[in-house]
Amino acid sequence: MDEYGSELTFDLLDELARASVRGRVAADEFLASRHVGRVGPLLELLLLDRDGKLPLRALPDCQTIHTLTGALSPANNCRAIYGSSDTATIGFITAGRDTATPEPDEELRWLEFRQKAQRAAELSLPKPIAQGLMGAMTEIEENIHLHSGRPDTGIVAFRGSAEEFEFVVADSGVGMLASLRTSPDYASLDDAGKALRLALQDGTSRLSHIEQNHGYGFRNLFRNLASLNGELRFRSDDQAVTIEGVGPELVKSTLRQKTSMQGFAASIVCRPHSTGQSN
């Protein structure tokens, strides 16, 4: 697996999880030589660690990672932590606040997190687009509370630099297939890949049979990415939908089977089109 380089990537996670489940590789050894760049693979590794598929502790900066995951445990509702380096600024927050009757301090921490995330986005993107992405991030985070069944497991993260902006929304909830199947409209759905694709389409929601305005949480995301170069990954159950390129749209997506993972993760990386094509 040395062909994947030294950074923790989705490609490495996919291959490592597959090999580890089959007992063909010692995952600790491969993870120990990787460093964390983007936060998307890190949070997906966290979900796989919760499933017992891959060991988060094996990362070389394991003390930092343990501090991170400890701070972001379900016991710490709406806890936020931030960090920065010479090249990037990052932030993480738990999504376990009570959205029906939120505590004032929780609302303030969520507002502060959004403000810091927007400033990080503005390092590479125009302010109006950064504002739009904050709306999209908020809508996807709200889905954790509406659909996951386990909002206490939710985490939102961002990373911003002069080249690109990334945000991630993840949880260890019931996943897309089980969520949609709670609706009479999708009770017969038995394919995780189809469920993931449906969930990304306008008007698809387990609650749409109750209120017609549900199921549009991803519309704002795709609209704000229209002029950007993006790398999107949506992961649930044993499936992943990926979209890459300028003006990413669902019609350009690719669906592939992966190792089963409890919950859902949306990872979005975007940069101005003028900085070049995605790699």
Labels describing this entry:
279 residues; alpha+beta; globular; disordered C terminus
**How would you spell out the order of helices and strands?**
HHHHEEHHEEHHHEE
CATH class of the largest domain: Alpha Beta
Strand order within the widest beta sheet: 1-2-3-4-6-5
- SS-based structural class? alpha+beta
Radius of gyration, in Å, reads 18 Å
SSE order and pairing:
Layout (H helix, E strand, L loop, with lengths): L9 H12 L5 H5 L7 H12 L11 H10 L8 E5 L3 E7 L9 H18 L5 H22 L6 E7 L3 E7 L3 H6 L11 H8 L19 H6 L3 E19 L7 E19 L7
Helix pairs in contact: 5-6
How does this structure look, described?
- The protein has 279 residues and is α+β, with helices and mostly antiparallel strands.
- The chain has 2 domains: 71 residues, no CATH class; 200 residues, 2-Layer Sandwich (Heat Shock Protein 90).
- Helix content is 35%, strand content 23%.
- Strands 1-2-3-4-6-5 form a 6-stranded antiparallel sheet, with helices on both faces.
- A hairpin with a 3-residue loop joins strand 3 and strand 4.
- The longest helix is centred in the middle third of the chain and has 22 residues.
